[in-house]
Design brief:
The protein is an all-alpha fold and 132 residues long. It is built from five helices and no strands.
Amino acid sequence: MSDLAGALLRYRVMAFVVGVVLLVLVFIGLPLQYAVGGVWQKVVPDAFTVHGLLYIVYLVTAVDLARRCRFTLLQLAAMVCAGFLPFLAFFVEHRVNLRVTAVLAGEEPARPGDPTQADRSDTEQRETGRRA
């Protein structure tokens, strides 16, 4: 497994974990805290603390993947926001997975504007045609 594939796997796992924990907290934990009260008033804030710690690990994996793939700041910002907006983690993870998989397959340049291998050969052919 390449370093990029490993970084993608780590990112995908953390995006899933953080997304699921956030959904459970927002749609189950908070309603229980305000509707039932009691023990839930102490459990939910502690669960949000756990989510915060998981989010820090998610940020590390997101920055690592963004660095390896040379993502733009806008792409990195989308990855960062995905950790604290419900449902967004799954959408962003899917988009990132498609892009990185394309990079791993050699179908897309790692950085926008970088020529792929096929583009390089076309460019070289044009340059040699001009020189002749």
